[in-house]
Amino acid sequence: MLIEATQLQELLNKPATDTQQPIVLCSLLRPVGASAESVNEVDFIPAAQQFDIDQFSQTDAPFPHTLLSASDFERKARQLGINTHSSIVVSDNIGIYSAPRVWFNFWLMGANKVQILNGGIPAWRAAGYRCAQDFAPVSATGNFCAQENSQLLADKDYVLAAINKPGMRIIDVRGAARFYGQVPEPRAGVRSGHIPGSANIPYANFIRDGRFKPVAELQELFRAAGCTQDQELIFSCGSGVTACIGFVAAHLCGYQKLRVYDGSWAEWGALDYLPVALD
């Protein structure tokens, strides 16, 4: 599910008619609080197309980055030229930040040939490969057919029922200061704290130098949080984006029962009737 820059370069060097040549997608989502000057938004992998997470989110939903319905995702994926059997490589301009969310979008909708560029565009540049300054146009409309796997998702009621339930573990990947309510939430009207009974593994702990850490180190992070392979893990974050980093890390470690709480803290912290812990 991860691909290195050298491997991607080899695939892109194949003739355009080669069925192994992937469609490359890039996300430019900025981390919360980051300025345009602090991130590179001008270098892209040649032939890459933009996957705009905001465009692939419900515009009328009460909480940010809410996933699209299967029919809306299918329509937008086709507009990117995605076919049912397309090979897809997703990347982002941070390294590992929003690319796992893009990967999760496709994985949720039934695409099974999707990889994440480990290290993203920074790794591509560091390898000395040519960059482009524009996204590539879409040559033809695709025929992708979405088949949503709802068992990869959790809503607030599912999470509420999972609190302290044997065999289930809620993992919050926000930073520790937000998890323990030591700093205000960046979104107005959202309480500080965390879901009772949840464990905190900040998403940055899964990453080193913009790349996923080796599997042995990822496994130790989950063990330290009390996770076991027989448990179901539910991942939460601020708005459902970086939760997918934890999801991918667990997938790399061989965990089989995984879900993303798409509403995440933007929803949980905004609804007064849901319990909040600070300890």
UniProtKB/TrEMBL annotation:
It comes from Cellvibrio fontiphilus. Keywords: Repeat, Transferase. PANTHER family: SULFURTRANSFERASE, THIOSULFATE SULFERTANSFERASE. One of its GO terms (molecular function) is transferase activity. InterPro entries: Rhodanese-like_dom, Rhodanese-like_dom_sf, TST/MPST-like. Its EC number is 2.8.1.-. It is an enzyme of class 2 (transferase). This is Sulfurtransferase. Residues 45-133, 164-277 form the Rhodanese domain. It comes from the Bacteria. Pfam families: Rhodanese.
